[in-house]
Amino acid sequence: MVHHGDLLLTLRQFWRRHYHYGIGGYHFRRGIAAMAGQGFRLEPVQFYVDMLAAPWRQMPLPRAAAVAALVALSQVASTVGLARAWWSFHV
Q1: Which of 34, 48, 59, 84 could form a disulfide linkage to 63, CB 3.0–4.6 angstroms apart?
Q2: Helix axes 11-36, 61-90, angle to 10 degrees
Q3: Intra-chain end-to-end CA distance of the chain, in Å
Q4: How far, CA to CA in Å, does 8 sit from each of 2, 5, 55, 75?
Q5: Mean pLDDT, to the nearest integer, of 14-38?
């Protein structure tokens, strides 16, 4: 999710923050899965679709496009971080 404070970050800082959120998310989900005795799980695809669609439903066009782009970028960075963490544990 894009927060007000993120607007003050450079693009590089924004990417690094969300990349590290992905790494942390991996460790969190891995711990939850271990405690529950279940496999590693992500949210359903619809969760991500709804997250990307929300700005278009709630904001005027110029702002919706900017927020949707930041949401998409945050999710890509988080996914890269999560994949990096997964790779480090499985290779």
Answers
A1: 59
A2: 50
A3: 30
A4: 11, 6, 19, 18
A5: 96
- Residue type at 77? A
* Residue 18 pLDDT: 98
pLDDT band at 46 (very low <50, low <70, confident <90, very high): very high
| Spatial separation of the C-alpha atoms in residues 74 and 40, rounded to whole Å | 21
Asked whether 79 and 22 are in contact (CB, 8 A), the reply is yes
> What is the signed CA dihedral for 51, 60, 70, 54, rounded to 10 degrees?
0
Q: Specify whether the CB–CB gap between 81 and 19 falls below 8 A.
A: yes
DSSP letter for 37, please: T
pLDDT of residue 33: 94
